[in-house]
Amino acid sequence: MSDADVSIGVAGALGPAAIARIAEAVEAAGLHALWVNDTAGGDALAALDAAAAATSGLTLATGVLALDRRPAREIAARVRDLPQERVVLGVGSGATRRGALDLVREGVAVLRAATTARVMVGALGPRMRALAAEEADGPLLSWLTPALAAEQTASARTAGASASLYVRTALDPAATERLAAEAARYGSFPAYAANFSRLGIAAEDTVLAPGTFADGIRAYRTAADEVVLRAIVAGDEVDAYVRFVEDAATRV
């Protein structure tokens, strides 16, 4: 299997202007894509608008848009003017528990009918991963060890889909404490805690720290079709993210 593409992920809360600058750096570095999380206080779709205007060929993705907060028809309307061949719409069920599969299935169908963008589904459990592989372009995976990522990617490929994988990553030793806090935060969320327990791993087993990056990125690049380095930096200055991008590009 060939090595996976490497992309960068950031939070939408950074704002469109900052994300446009980061997108320019990602494209200049020759990395595959920029993924923008639709985080509280941010707007991933506004960020994609700004990033599209600042770049010429970079793949632009959302990871993920919660369909309980952003109806699929609203998403489709907002991305209509973006270069569809460059857009990946990562969607998920958000806080929905009962009816989550139906919500995502219906949302994927709407987006497929209304856009020509690729559609990926944020998926933890086996039923959502199966839906992602069978009805969308594949699952967006996260918080997995390389071995588990390889197993879940293989399952997606069996259905003719591909798998992208988020990996929380710090390259600057000054960001190590923040990386540990991010792992602890996700480990405290009930849905993620249950998934970690089911898989027999801990959140900290799935991150890339400065001292483990070289070996870890090699393992992850053979485990998925795309590895998204979710950038963890010491502070949220744009220059820190640009340095992350440039550093990552020299190491992969």
Written overview of the protein:
The chain has helices at 16-28, 44-54, 72-79, 100-114, 126-135, 146-158, 176-187, 190-199, 213-221, 238-251; strands spanning 5-11, 33-37, 59-66, 87-92, 118-122, 139-142, 164-169, 226-231. It has one domain (5-251): TIM Barrel, CATH 3.20.20.30. The chain has an 8-stranded parallel β-barrel, surrounded by 8 helices. It has 10 helices and 8 strands. The longest helix has 15 residues, at 100-114.
Compose a concise summary of this entry:
This protein is an alpha/beta fold.
Number of domains: 1
Low-confidence segments, given as residue ranges, are none
CATH superfamily: Luciferase-like domain
Put simply, the count of helices is 10
Structural class: alpha/beta
- Which sequence of strands runs across the widest sheet? 1-2-3-4-5-6-7-8
Q: Class, according to the CATH hierarchy?
A: Alpha Beta
Q: Main β-sheet: number of strands, strand sense, barrel status?
A: 8 strands, parallel, barrel
Radius of gyration: 17 Å
N-to-C span: 16 Å
User: What is the overall shape?
Assistant: globular
List the secondary-structure elements in sequence, H or E: EHEHEHEHEHEHEHHHEH
Using DSSP, what is the number of strands? 8
Beta-strand content estimate: 15-25%
| Level-2 CATH architecture | Alpha-Beta Barrel
CATH topology: TIM Barrel
